[in-house]
């Protein structure tokens, strides 16, 4: 399958490590963006132990982002799991050029990293614990 | 400078909106069509130099930024275009701005610093648009809460952050349109201190209720005037907590400007500009600025008579339907023409009769002793 962008090898390694990291508490996230010049998907932010609200604040208003999130999920029956979530953040009012660029590379990135759970996000205000729980426990 | 108002008749249909450029040598005007015409002053008259063709539906509002020489137009087709003059070809090049509204745009104004503009719309929101250099793209942010109906008019505060909006839900509101990255923190004002985007700094209504057609901040920004469809003019000064509502025994006003801190001119369905003055602490109606038209001002030739009949769709020459003011139909827009915001010397009005008239504010205040209604 052809692709528009490449993934930065350093980022790939980081994502592997991220996926298999042993977690006991808290959320961790890696936010990725596309470098228009090299058409390369690179890492923008990497943060451990942050709240979902803090993550929402990190998101820019005007360009899409790929978010890989390890979310601390407390199930109703008391279990705790740390699912790996891929969020495709694309706010309204973005230049269509960007929308197309990010959308075209989305599936490629998804497959490369091996992520199953994908959710779309239109507005950074929507990103809350309640929203994530609803999506994951459906 | 002559004392009598300068009447410009275009005979191209009713004027829906107009805007002059910075030095008043050019005029952008829309005759209730999808097209905006640009005229250039040549002697005493105006010659058409170009047309801005891009909108699919009637253009509702135009604004011309005096310093950066950019025109913004908005239309019922839910779009706004920013036009920049291409130096080499002297052509106006449009840039589409995605407003993300699902109803017509009704009104647009550049901010005082000309780095943003606000578009009022029928989708119960105001779109504040600014240019993002990195993305080479105009981005619009919406002011939605708590607007419940179409926003009819907008005025910017001199500090480039506060925005007044007159709405069909019968309320005049003041919002903060602070954009991070574009605006610096504004000085504290009587309207509020910490002002993130979409903060409601004030919500006012007039007495009997009625759509708020026009809003205007005073030159200092300390006060706000708004006119309602219940024929009232209300002046609000949050600093002193003073709210004065003047009920004028005339038809409603559609548009209003400040001549200086003590004088307001409003115009609307009565087809003439009316002056309101602050006497002591009280605002009151002073006079109509349009005395009955002396017949000498209006053209006497047969050609002029028939042209007037045509613009009013008359089939006989009877003058029963002639109104004794310069404008023969509702004035829908009044804008300052010359002078500073603190002391407006001339202002222009455009009306549904297809005329654009430039009035002198000075001669009016001099002759006020004699005028009364």
TrEMBL record, chain A:
UniProt xrefs under Gene3D superfamilies: Severin
Superkingdom to which the source organism belongs: Eukaryota
Gene Ontology cellular component list: cortical actin cytoskeleton; nucleus
Keyword Nucleus part of the UniProt annotation: yes
Residues spanning the signal sequence: none
A GO MF term: actin binding
Keyword Cytoplasm: yes
Recorded family membership: Belongs to the actin-binding proteins ADF family. GMF subfamily.
Name of the protein in its database record: ADF-H domain-containing protein
Source organism (scientific name): Linnemannia hyalina
From TrEMBL, chain B:
Keyword Repeat: yes
GO molecular function, one term: actin filament binding
InterPro entries, alphabetized: ARPC1, WD40/YVTN_repeat-like_dom_sf, WD40_repeat_dom_sf, WD40_rpt
TM spans (from-to): none
Gene Ontology CC: one annotated term: Arp2/3 protein complex
GO BP, sorted A to Z: Arp2/3 complex-mediated actin nucleation
Gene3D superfamilies: YVTN repeat-like/Quinoprotein amine dehydrogenase
Subcellular location(s) of the protein: Cytoplasm, Cytoskeleton, Actin patch
Keywords: Actin-binding, Cytoplasm, Cytoskeleton, Repeat, WD repeat
Renumbered ranges of WD repeats: 52-86
Domain of life: Eukaryota
Amino-acid biosynthesis as UniProt keyword: no
Record-stated family: Belongs to the WD repeat ARPC1 family.
The protein's role, per its UniProt record: Functions as component of the Arp2/3 complex which is involved in regulation of actin polymerization and together with an activating nucleation-promoting factor (NPF) mediates the formation of branched actin networks.
Annotated PANTHER family: ACTIN-RELATED PROTEIN 2/3 COMPLEX SUBUNIT 1, ACTIN-RELATED PROTEIN 2_3 COMPLEX SUBUNIT
Full protein name: Actin-related protein 2/3 complex subunit
Species assigned in the record: Linnemannia hyalina
